[in-house]
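Lab notebook, bench 4. The sequencing result for the construct came back, and we need a structural model before the next group meeting so we can plan mutations. Quick request posted to the team channel:

Model the 3D structure of this chain.
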Amino acid sequence: MNDWLNIILRHLRANTPICRVIIADAKGSTPRESGADMFVTAAGISGTIGGGRLEFEAIAIAQKMLNKGAGEAAGFRRHCQSFALGPNLGQCCGGRVVLFFEVFFLAALDALTLLQDADAVGWCHDGKDATALPAPSGARDFNAHYDTKSQQLSLGIAAQNRALYVYGAGHVGRALMEITGGLGFDRYWVDDDAARFPDAVGAGITCLPVQDMPTLAAHAHEGAFHVVMTYAHRLDEAIILAILQAGNFARLGLIGSKSKARRFHKNLADAGVDAASLAQITCPIGLASIKGKAPPRVALSIAAQLVIWLDELADSPPRPHQ
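Done. Here's the predicted structure in token form:
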């Protein structure tokens, strides 16, 4: 889920009313999951709720709400509608979704700015009542939750991205950074030579040129993913040891071969690392079913592994990091 509050505020500050369309509930086979959203303005759309006839109908409803303007004086208008994808829309996936449509007009700007300043963790959507209230601080982690009886939807204001540390700005590191945007990571790219980083990097990437990469790894965000792929085996080993000793990571991957993994296990065991900690190293990282050693293919294999890890940990979201 994106940082929807900032998206809406940005449009309202540019005098552009905007409709947010959210999948409040998804049952059976559906093109997107609960919590997926898209944004509709008079000028166009961004995001997606899965495409196809459902999205076409949703855009039409959103544009009608924007054009009608009812609720403009209050700054806010809401609509809730259920869709049976097979019988109603002829989509082969055949599930059922509930969509929330929320139109924000210019009069909502002050209230939304106050919500942003209050650092609320979530937003409660009620399909019958036109009042939206910030969720109480310290409430549940806001994965999408829809109550069918009250027609109330709870969502987080901003995504809780997983921190991803990539050590090494070589060919594979560059390829990996090119394809991991939008997967749900705050990405930290670490190397001991600033010249190895490209002149321009993608959004959401923090480049960290540091001489002592193991020390940085030991102080990484709690619950982070780490992918180690530097230019030297000894440096890889030192970074791995620092991460294992810190012990606050979620997943740890090392680029290399099975023989490299065996050598690292022996050396780390000699350094006092126990068997349970060694078992947390994934080496080689990536999906074996994706063949080839060209950097784009290796990066694709690693990215697929990262997504699998995210899915495995979906029920235990990361703690917010500064």
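Residues 129-133, 136-142 have pLDDT under 50 and may be disordered.
Will bring this to the meeting.
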